[in-house]
Specification:
mainly alpha
């Protein structure tokens, strides 16, 4: 992809991601509610999110290796196909264990898709444009996230929660077709470099890289919020404590992504102008404030307002850490570097529902918000005090040469 245009970027990366995230959003208001229909507790219902995260977690390293070995495009196609297939199978599951199994395989597919997609972006973006181009990319993704929960809420209300998974499967098929038609392999992806073995030396090297480590911690915290609060606790809190309908819950979740939508591109420019670290710290602080506000309210309108605050906080929490991690890994094998970065994020996804679900079962549905808020503020303080800026020009270094990954 040496010659690029905005049109080709939109067709090859942005639009397929839009449909994947629409599908994810469609099931988000009902995922734990559907899991509870099998007669399980809140904690076990959260396993619907947890096993998906486990699937992503166990596949992150292999996906990174495969992205370097077989290329970015084949892995994106395989991953998208698994997402669509397992969404259909989720709707047909006749037991909770079978439902969890399909969610696990779907998580593996999502890891293939996300890691190869992230690697492809890392291949083609220059340091001085990473924030704003990721902002454009995030906008397409955010539109899908904003539309998905609202669509999903009405689908569940009109047709039942099972129908949401059929809609998810349909959006996955659309994304698969677009990926197959428009994705083109990058030069690094064509190199087919690397060995299919655990990258011990690279992993140790990256763990000594402060920019990479702080980016990974920020990413893990963002995923913790999304899986633990946004996907797990908030829908149950809105249903059980506030007594809201699936359509109401979908709108509340969409409120956060509406804030993401309006702020993503301005924040993308901020990432390139003022740096990665300030955006990360601001996002964490705003997210922490929203965590302490949620349990104060049961009104639909006020919960929508707090969700907007959460959206303000999370607006830069995907672009800025990814830009920082990409800055910090110039010259490293792209696929496995991004696989390791995603691995840390998926640790957050894994432990979010487990920890917060256990807290909810033991102390009530308000407690997880306070626990999450405390964690977020601790991470914000840690990055503010000890984090380092990686944006060339803001860190005292000139733009590094673009080194092709071996």
């Amino acid at each position: 992809m040496t010659e690029r245009s905005r049109t080709s970027d939109i067709l090859s990366i942005y639009v397929p991601s839009f449909f994947i995230f629409v599908g994810m959003g469609i099931v988000s208001p009902v995922l734990t509610i559907y899991a509870q229909s099998f007669g399980v507790s809140i904690f076990l219902a959260g396993m619907a999110i947890t096993v998906y995260s486990v699937g992503r977690l166990v596949m992150d390293f292999p996906a990174g290796l495969l992205a370097d070995k077989i290329g970015r495009r084949p892995l994106m196609i395989i991953g998208t196909a698994l997402i669509a297939l397992c969404a259909f199978l989720n709707a047909t599951a006749d037991s909770f264990l079978l439902f969890l199994f399909y969610r696990f395989i779907q998580g593996m597919g999502a890891s293939m898709w996300m890691t190869s997609r992230t690697t492809l972006l890392a291949d083609i973006l220059k340091p001085e444009e990473r924030g704003r181009v990721l902002g454009y990319f995030q906008s397409f993704q955010t539109i899908g996230q904003a539309a998905g929960p609202t669509i999903g809420g009405f689908v569940a209300t009109w047709y039942g929660v099972q129908a949401n998974f059929y809609f998810y499967a349909a959006t996955g098929v659309v994304s698969l077709v677009l990926t197959y038609m428009f994705i083109k392999e990058t030069e690094s992806g064509k190199a087919h470099s690397g060995e299919l073995a655990f990258p011990r030396d690279l992993t140790l090297r990256l763990l000594k890289n402060r920019g990479f480590v702080f980016a990974s911690i920020a990413s893990a915290t963002a995923f913790f919020i999304v899986s633990g609060i946004r996907q797990d606790i908030l829908p149950i809190y809105a249903a059980d404590v506030a007594g809201l309908t699936p359509a109401d819950i979908g709108i509340i979740l969409s409120a956060a992504t509406i804030a993401n939508l309006f702020l993503t591109i301005p924040i993308g420019y901020g990432i390139d102008l003022i740096g990665r670290k300030p955006v990360i710290v601001f996002g964490l602080v705003a997210s922490g404030v929203s965590m302490f506000l949620f349990p104060q309210f049961t009104s639909f309108i006020l919960l929508c307002g707090v969700s907007l605050v959460m959206g303000v906080g999370t607006s830069g929490m995907q672009q800025a850490p990814l830009a920082m991690a990409t800055d910090a890994t110039v010259g490293e094998p792209r696929g496995i570097s991004m696989g390791i970065f995603r691995f840390f994020g998926d640790i957050g996804s894994l432990f979010g529902p487990i920890l917060l679900g256990a807290v909810a079962d033991g102390f009530g549905l308000a407690a997880p918000f306070y626990v999450m808020g405390g964690i977020v503020f601790l991470v914000a303080a840690f990055i503010f005090l000890f984090g380092e800026e990686t944006l060339p020009g803001k860190n005292g270094k000139k733009n590094p040469p673009q080194v092709k990954a071996p």
